[in-house]
Task: structure prediction
Amino acid sequence: MFNLILFGPPGSGKGTQAAKITEKYNLHHISTGDLFRCELKNESELGKAVKRYLDKGELVPDHITIKMLNKKIQSFENPNGFLLDGFPRNKAQADALGELFKELGTDVDLLLALDVGEEEIVKRILNRAKTSGRSDDMDENIIRSRYQIYKEFTQNVFDYYKKLNKAKKVDGVGEIDVVFNRLCCAIDEHKDK
Ligand code: ADP
Result:
């Protein structure tokens, strides 16, 4: 199995790049944000429980997120590997992922962090808001608050994997295919090690 974490601030291009990477490397794309939005749309119990966090751009409590992620990962039979997008977002989630993968006899291979600055992020998300229909994309204050949450609680997940020699930064500014190439180079380099 090959397990990749695609990391970076909101709006850094994780979803776009994840679709291309999962196709090329035959991985399952798991986006916790997409999973939550799907629950919301279906008006499930879980959807109702997480709505207020998504609306404000705040992190959903760990016990809810970790339970959902575990269930999703365990639903695949003989997976070739996973690309995680939007998870883990703090140390508790990273620890939980380590435990789950250990039970499954696998591990995180690599974390790739898309590097994009705050002003570019705000510009991109406001632009995405025109088509995404996401209420958390429409309000500049919520966008900046999501970015601050990333800086404060999420970014240190990079150091967590860096210490294990599993984390790399990739320049996330440029054309989609240019960024995609940078990511593929980083993955191939890691696989050849
Ligand atoms: P973005 O990266 O653009 O903020 P996501 O689609 O990854 O968007 O996440 C949208 C929202 O879903 C987050 O603001 C948060 O409320 C919730 N969410 C997603 N992943 C997690 C997670 N790992 N832990 C807690 N909350 C999460």
Notes: The two ends are 16 Å apart (CA to CA). The chain has ten helices and five strands.
